[in-house]
Structures are given as structure tokens and as C-alpha cells.
Amino acid sequence: MDHTELAQKFFEKIIDGWMLADLENMVTKIPAVEGAVGNCNFPIALYIFACIEFLGFLTSDVIIPDGADNDTKRRIWSYMNSYFDNGFISQLKSYEDDFVSIFRHGLAHEFFAKAAEVSRGKSLLVFYDTDLKSLVLDADKFYEAFKFSTENLKQVISQNTGKIADKMLSRYNTLQASNFIKFLPKNVPTSTHTSLSNASIAEPIDKNTTTLPYDPKE
């Protein structure tokens, strides 16, 4: 199996099978009711940021390692600038300096967006609400923009444009191997363990094998 086929397998399992499937369930099975609780505005938006940051790490022109200056912001904008539709990017550009800090960092570290709001069912991806007097990110439009971007990424992978397939596989495998070296030995129980039978567990790699599922050496 060549690199392009392996990257397509990665796309089908992780991006289509996990990222988009989870998002589609949140968006379509939890209808937004204006003024009601339980609309999942925050979880949808934060989950999309997590997906975009991860894919930005895998696809950026130059690798952006953990701990690099503004690593999260750079990864997110690298992905969005490369794969988001120009119409969505044009809505974001006015807020480029603060977009990640306000929404991603706010939701991840302070629960709320920073001096801003998250909506569902609005017509624009991001806009200034004159009644609320605050910036608003619409989770449904963010989902639409992200889903569209994955179709662009899928096309690029199929053609291995800029050796994107090689890049993604190499970075993904290096990342997972590093995580296992750093964290798995510390968390292996020395005596007993609890079996999670029938649990739904999404794992990036099979811990029972020595070969990563998207190994570029295959």
C-alpha cells in the first residue's frame, strides 16, 4: 500500500469516521432551540478547534511543534488558510489577531469565550452582534466550514499534492510514537486492571502491535 492509499485510509478512519461522525451527531441529533439550554454550542465549537489544530499540525508547510511560539494559533490558521473556503476566511480575517485567543483559548481554558458568545443557527460564521455588543461565533456555520474544508483536504490527499500524504503519515506516526514512549510506561498497571468490555473506545493505534497503522515504511 503506497503513501497516498495509507493517507486515504487515515482520512476515512479518523477524519470521516471519528471527527466528522461525532460532529454530525452533535449538530443533527441535537437541534438548536433558541434561548434553550442543552444546545451544545460550546462543545461543538471547541471540538472543531481541536480537530483543526490537530490537522494543522499534520498539514502545515513547516512543522509547528508543541511549545513553539503561538503553536496553537499558528496550527489553526495554517489549516484554515489552506483548506477553508474563501468565503469563510473572508469573514474571519477581520478578527484574525484575536480569533483563536477569544474562542479557542476561552472555551478551552475559561469555559466561556472571552468577552464573546457562541451561537447556533445563524447565517454568518462570525459576526458582531449589536444587541449583545459582542463578537459571536456560530457553531453550526463553523461545522459547515470545517466539513467543507475536509473535502478540500481529501482532494489534496488523493493527489498527494506537495507530498501531503507523506507529511501527514510521518508526523502522525512520530507524534503517536513519542506519546507512547513518554506516557504509556507510566500508566501500565503492575498488578490488576479493569476491563472495559463493550465500551466505545477510539484509539489512535493498536497497543498490541509494534507497527503503526499508517506506517510510511509499508
Q: Which features would summarize this protein structure in a list?
A:
218 residues, mainly alpha, 7 helices
If helices are DSSP runs of H or I spanning 4 or more residues, what is the number of helices? 7
- Order of strands, main sheet, comes to 1-3-2
Portion in helices = 40-55%
From the alpha carbons, calculate the radius of gyration and give it in angstroms: 19 Å
Structure description:
This protein is mainly alpha-helical. The chain has one domain (3-159). The chain has helices at residues 3-29, 41-59, 71-83, 86-92, 99-110, 139-159, 164-183; strands at 116-119, 126-129, 134-138. The protein has a 3-stranded mixed β-sheet. The longest helix is centred in the first third of the chain and has 27 residues, at 3-29. It is globular and about 55 Å long.
Summarize the structure.
With 218 residues, this protein is mainly alpha-helical. It has one domain. It is built from 7 helices and 3 strands; from the N terminus they run H-H-H-H-H-E-E-E-H-H.
Helices and strands, with pairings:
Elements lengths: L2 H27 L11 H19 L11 H13 L2 H7 L6 H12 L5 E4 L6 E4 L4 E5 H21 L4 H20 L35
Parallel strand pairs: 1-3
Antiparallel strand pairs: 2-3
